[in-house]
Specification:
By secondary structure, this protein is of the alpha/beta class. Helices cover 37% and strands 18% of the residues. It has helices at 6-10, 39-51, 62-72, 85-96, 112-119, 164-173, 195-198, 226-233, 243-254, 256-279, 302-310, 334-347, and strands spanning 26-28, 79-82, 102-107, 123-128, 146-152, 178-181, 202-207, 220-223, 283-284, 291-295, 313-320, 324-330. The strands form two sheets. It has a seven-stranded mixed sheet, with helices on both faces. A five-stranded mixed sheet has the order 1-11-12-10-9, with helices on both faces. Strand 6 (178-181), helix 7 and strand 7 (202-207) form a beta-alpha-beta unit. Helix 10 (256-279) runs parallel beside helix 12 (334-347). The longest helix has 24 residues, at 256-279. The radius of gyration is 20 Å and the shape is globular. The structure holds pyridoxal-5'-phosphate. The site of pyridoxal-5'-phosphate has 12 residues, from helix 4.
Length: 348
């Protein structure tokens, strides 16, 4: 006897990366920022908290929308906020994809997308990246009942980026919306934001979890044309962002100087990580994100992950059937990366 819809019974459920509670880990497994957020964030939370939380928050997070609109060069009604960008992805999938429909994603990429399709009772179709992590024409092809295409850009686990011109070409050929998940884009050389005004089918999502060092806060948003935002708004929970997170997120995006400084620190450490891994004999993909994807042709990498974990250094081991396995290592502080490289050097 089961009370669940058959697709819920049949699915496994998404398993997030390990979040050890307590224990002194050097944590390089879920791409968090190693530095604390802008001090303005804490101030905003304290002020909001002092004013009290007895009233409901603004359902549309207007304060954030107005400030973000100025910073990102759009109008406020082009922005919808979410409880983390995962919430935005859930809202989009619920709005566009129904029972039996098709959701497309690249492979290997963010496994959560498939889970979102399953919850809807929809099918998912994975289009493999080419060996050099570029995308083929088929990613923009039409498909039977294709309703949504999700593209992490930069991609995880590779850290690679599909150039904006190609994203636009793909979107123009598709019969459905293309959501470009830009969770890591603040660490990249370019982004797809300006494509939104040029193509109704393009949605761009952003997260405050990585580049703004606020994974614990839960705030993300999507930028799309106003008629798309209006439709998505019908699907979201009324109060999907709370008063503290709205105030904190507004303060965070307001401090673009903090973002630029943090970005240059992360990029400098990323160069050190890439060079160090290559020196150890790994094949390390050039990264546009705050992590690197590392494979090794000479030895299995799973035991390396396990040995590192024994030494309280946590990286992400990932195995993609038909593609291969590797270690995804987040860019921590210089000190954390040096410790990781040193341990790996002793093991390999
Ligand atoms: C981390 C991540 C997200 C989720 O970000 P949140 O804002 O923390 O929900 C979305 N997409 C990708 C590809 C990610 O790696």
């Amino acid at each position: 006897m089961t009370y669940f819809r058959s697709n819920i019974d049949a699915m496994a459920g998404y398993v997030p990366g390990e979040q050890p509670q307590g224990g002194q880990f050097i944590k390089l497994n879920t791409n968090e920022n190693p530095y604390p957020a802008s001090p303005a964030v804490r101030q905003a939370i304290e002020e909001t908290s002092r004013r009290g939380l007895q009233k409901y928050p603004d359902p549309m997070a207007g304060e954030f929308r107005r400030r973000a609109a100025e910073i990102f060069g759009v109008q406020p009604d082009w922005i919808l906020c979410g409880n983390g960008s995962d919430d935005v992805l859930t809202i989009a999938t619920r709005a566009f994809v129904g029972q039996g429909h098709l959701l497309r994603l690249p492979y290997p990429s963010y496994v959560l997308y498939k889970t979102l399709a399953r919850i809807q009772g929809a099918r998912s179709q994975e289009i493999p990246f080419r060996a050099d992590w570029s995308l083929g024409e088929e990613f923009g092809a039409s498909g039977d009942d294709l309703r949504l295409v999700l593209l992490p850009n930069p991609n995880s686990p590779s850290g690679t980026l599909v150039p904006p011109e190609q994203v636009l070409e793909l979107a123009q050929r598709l019969p459905c919306p293309l959501l470009v998940d830009e969770a890591y884009v603040d660490f990249a050389d370019t982004n797809c934001l300006e494509l939104v005004a040029r193509c109704e089918k393009i949605l761009v999502s952003r997260s405050l979890s990585k580049s703004y060092a606020l994974a614990g806060l839960r705030f993300g948003f999507v930028v799309a044309q106003p008629q798309i935002i209006a439709g998505l708004t019908k699907v979201k929970d009324s109060y999907n962002c709370d008063a503290l997170s709205i105030a904190a997120a507004t303060a965070a995006v307001d401090d673009q100087k903090w973002l630029a400084e943090n970005r240059s620190k992360i990029l400098a450490t990323r160069r050190r990580l890439v060079a160090g891994m290559r020196e150890l004999g790994f094949t390390t993909v050039d990264s546009q994100a705050n992590f690197t994807w590392n494979t090794h042709s000479g030895q299995p990498v799973r035991p390396l992950y396990e040995r590192l974990k024994q030494d309280r250094i946590l990286v992400r081991y990932m195995d993609y059937p038909g593609w291969g396995d590797g270690l995804r290592i987040s860019v921590g502080t210089d000190q954390q990366i040096d410790a990781c490289l040193e341990r790996l050097g002793a093991i390999v």
